[in-house]
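Supplementary Methods. Inverse-folding protocol.

Structures were first reduced to a discrete structure-token string of length 402. This string, shown here, constituted the complete conditioning input.
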């Protein structure tokens, strides 16, 4: 009887304590009393691509700006970032630390394609949403709690080829593609849209990411009679190909992926970049749109030594995606939980997110970025020469097996 009494008393005390504990009852990473949400990301401070730090700096600048403005209904964002050295195995360990040691509510703008892919099984197991993974894998579209902004490179290549054919009136279109997932994705979309246009590729030439001499590739391009060349590789690859074409007197229209529409490419290619087109899901960094101007202003304030370019706008936009989703959750009036964040994200429709436009998610379709514009480098600036349009159906729908 006495034991039963003390057991009942102990239970009552514990229940009272838990009911009065406030934020300890909330979802992990959410402090309801102080209106603080803790989120995190892995990022390569060390390793082969430390310059990707500008992506994370831009994301940090976004949350710093938001915290100062109080524009998220008075909520503030505690953004925790940790170095993974761009090593997928370390990315998993860092993610585990962010979740289990730092108690993050979600991952926001974690950096890298291979690194994010490696983290997917753990994130799924831990029930942690990944909002805005900064990478370009079709695997991201297939996981219920992962919401990517970046498109499949096949959609971008399809957009570029379609513009070359219908916008420039070119029928002889060639592809130079990096022999890895980036280039293979581009080739899939390119082949699909060329077939849909009733055109045969003038050339389709793979190259290694470390390629520095494109002389042989350009000779093949010249012999093909190509009017347009799409190059899907790094900014260094693009600069090297432009130099080889210049030396051999090959005059064609060039297209490259969005991330090469950046001052870093200009440093490598110089005046040869004049006239190059870029199929891009992001607005030009020089855009007067308020969200892009806010990026330029915030980076100048919080990271004045960082270059203002497409890499930074990429990181900024992926951070903005978490804010948009969290605001949808707040507006819904639902309890602030991870499951409800996923539910809210799936209601996002035709949203402007940082430098992206038309961002849409649903429970069965996580292809967030659904349109691209065409940017051209001309007269010392990256300018939008064709407004945002939906991706060609033949390539976009292929990602869903339609």
């Amino acid at each position: 009887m006495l034991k039963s009494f003390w057991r009942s008393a102990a239970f009552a005390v514990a229940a009272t304590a838990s009911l009065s504990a406030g934020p300890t009852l909330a979802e992990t990473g959410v402090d309801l009393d102080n209106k603080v949400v803790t989120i995190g990301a892995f990022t390569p401070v060390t390793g082969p691509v430390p310059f990707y730090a500008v992506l994370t700096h831009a994301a940090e600048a976004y949350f710093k700006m938001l915290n100062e403005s109080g524009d998220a209904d008075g909520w503030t964002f505690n953004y925790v970032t940790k170095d993974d050295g761009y090593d997928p195995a370390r990315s998993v360990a860092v993610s585990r630390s962010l979740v289990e040691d730092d108690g993050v509510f979600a991952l926001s703008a974690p950096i890298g394609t291979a690194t994010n892919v490696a983290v997917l099984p753990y994130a799924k197991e831990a029930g942690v949403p990944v909002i805005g993974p900064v990478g370009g894998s079709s695997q991201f579209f297939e996981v219920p709690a992962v919401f990517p902004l970046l498109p499949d490179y096949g959609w971008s290549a399809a957009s570029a080829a379609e513009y070359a054919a219908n916008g420039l009136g070119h029928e002889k279109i060639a592809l130079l593609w990096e022999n890895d997932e980036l280039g293979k994705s581009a080739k899939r979309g390119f082949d699909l849209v060329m077939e849909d246009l009733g055109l045969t590729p003038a050339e389709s030439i793979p190259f290694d990411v470390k390629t520095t001499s494109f002389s042989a590739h350009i000779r093949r391009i010249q012999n093909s009679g190509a009017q347009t060349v799409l190059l899907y590789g790094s900014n260094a690859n693009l600069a090297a190909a432009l130099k080889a074409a210049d030396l051999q007197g090959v005059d064609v229209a060039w297209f490259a992926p969005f991330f090469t529409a950046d001052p870093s490419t200009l440093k490598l290619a110089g005046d040869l970049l004049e006239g190059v087109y870029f199929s891009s899901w992001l607005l030009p960094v020089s855009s007067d749109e308020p969200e892009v101007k806010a990026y330029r202003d915030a980076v100048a304030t919080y990271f004045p030594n960082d270059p203002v370019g497409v890499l930074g706008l990429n990181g900024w936009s992926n951070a903005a995606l978490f804010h948009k989703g969290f605001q949808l959750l707040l507006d819904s009036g639902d309890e602030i939980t991870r499951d409800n964040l996923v539910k809210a994200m799936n209601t996002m429709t035709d949203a402007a997110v940082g430098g992206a436009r038309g961002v849409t998610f649903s429970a069965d379709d996580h292809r967030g970025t659904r349109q691209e514009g065409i940017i051209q480098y001309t007269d010392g600036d990256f300018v939008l020469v064709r407004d945002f349009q939906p991706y060609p159906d033949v390539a976009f729908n292929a990602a869903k097996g339609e």
